[in-house]
Amino acid sequence: MSFYACDKGIEPKNYDEPTGFSGTVTFVGEWPTEIKRTFIVVFKDPLLSAADFTITNLKFLSLEIPLGVQTYNFSSLDSSYIPQNPGPFLTGEYAYVAVAYQTTDQLSLARKDWYVAGVYDGNLNTNEPATMIVRENIFITYINIACDFNNPPPQPPGGS
């Protein structure tokens, strides 16, 4: 008589894949000389009013993108200002993923000091924000953002 067995039974699968996202930002046109700093920003809820631009709604703020580059590869697993300890990204739906810049000398969290250079639009070239869905143990690639300084996307409410 023979017996067969699995060594771990019906244990859940052990995933080695981190949770998060990555992509490439492409810049078109000359960088405006007044830009002081540029970031990738991710907001949980849509930016329908200036009141939606809050630190509690901002779920990811990358380190600064080097000024003057033509392309920039990024990953949520890299260093960031928000969250302070990079690692697996939180699962959920994110309504607004964009590249934004500031022209102020000091870093500011006031909506009036931010300008959107490009939005993640699901790679459809519409300039309309697409929802990014992050699932546990899945690392999303191709969260690509095109920034055309000569043809920026519509700005969220509350800007200058």
3D structure, described in words:
- With 160 residues, the protein is mainly β.
- It has one domain (21-148).
- It has strands spanning 20-28, 37-43, 58-62, 71-75, 80-82, 92-94, 96-102, 114-119, 132-134, 139-140, 145-148.
- Strands 5-3-2-7-8 form a 5-stranded antiparallel β-sheet, with no helix packed on it.
- The N and C termini lie far apart (80 Å).
- 27% of the residues are buried.
- The mean pLDDT is 88.
Question: How are the SSEs placed, and which strands pair?
Answer:
Elements: E1 20-28, E2 37-43, E3 58-62, E4 71-75, E5 80-82, E6 92-94, E7 96-102, E8 114-119, E9 132-134, E10 139-140, E11 145-148
Parallel strand pairs: 1-10, 1-11
Antiparallel strand pairs: 1-4, 2-3, 2-7, 3-5, 6-9, 7-8
* Strands side by side in the biggest sheet: 5-3-2-7-8
Q: What is the number of independent domains?
A: 1
Helix-strand sequence: EEEEEEEEEEE
Low-confidence stretches: none
Q: What is the number of beta strands?
A: 11
Please tell me the overall pLDDT: 88
Distance between the termini: 80 Å
- Portion of residues in beta strands equals 25-35%
Query: Number of helix segments?
Result: 0
Computed CA radius of gyration, to the nearest angstrom: 19 Å
Anisotropy-based shape: globular
The major sheet is characterized as: 5 strands, antiparallel
Helicity, as a percent range: under 10%
Broad structural category: mainly beta
